[in-house]
Design goal:
Layout lengths: L3 E6 L4 E7 L1 E6 L2 E5 L6 E14 L2 E14 L3 E6 L2 E3 L5 H17 L6 H18 L4 E2 L4
Parallel strand pairs: 1-7
Antiparallel strand pairs: 1-2, 3-4, 3-5, 5-6, 6-7, 6-8, 6-9
Helix pairs in contact: 1-2
The structure holds adenosine-5'-triphosphate.
Adenosine-5'-triphosphate binds next to helix 1 and helix 2.
Length: 140
């Protein structure tokens, strides 16, 4: 089976770099599955979960929006923020969630509603992805 090179980078660091069998990325209109030999593509990513499969290994990353580029021989995810499930600080995400919910409920003067909504979404995705355990799937 062929593989495809995947790089997940943020403005700060490289979060993931390896040959993979497939990925499922958070497109704006739902999850977007990319297999080797996918047609070249450039698209915007939303706040969501990135699933990466290699053999029986499955990994999960939280993505805070960005871009996905599919080139003939590789895929680049340029993310505003990206964390592997095991690197997510759950208490920090809980605190961010509470802050965003409080701000949305109280609607203080000058509040940026869209920013609060995006912050809430990032925190919820981080909390969801943090519960994912990297796993070894059964042979199919
Ligand atoms: P916070 O309000 O807690 O900073 P945020 O959603 O505003 O959350 P971002 O602007 O998306 O944070 O990210 C800033 C940096 O902090 C990025 O490098 C991101 O990967 C990291 N980060 C944010 N929240 C977490 C978390 N809960 N666990 C690990 N890293 C995090």
């Amino acid at each position: 089976m062929s593989t495809i090179k995947l790089d997940v980078v943020t403005p700060e660091e490289s979060v993931f770099s390896d040959e993979v069998d497939m990925l499922v990325a958070p497109g704006l209109e739902g999850q977007l599955g990319i297999l080797p030999h996918h047609t070249p593509l450039m698209t915007i990513l939303g706040i969501g979960e990135l699933i990466i499969r290699k053999g029986k290994d499955e990994q999960f990353l939280a993505i805070g929006g960005g871009f996905l580029e599919v080139l003939p021989d590789r895929v680049i995810v340029l993310a505003d923020a990206a964390e592997r499930a095991e690197d997510i600080d759950v208490s920090r995400a809980e605190a961010a969630k509470e802050r965003a919910q409080k701000s949305m409920a109280e609607r203080p003067e000058g509040m940026d509603a869209a920013a609060a909504e995006a912050a809430l979404k990032r925190s919820l995705i981080r909390l969801k992805v943090a519960t994912r355990r990297r796993r070894h799937r059964q042979e199919m």
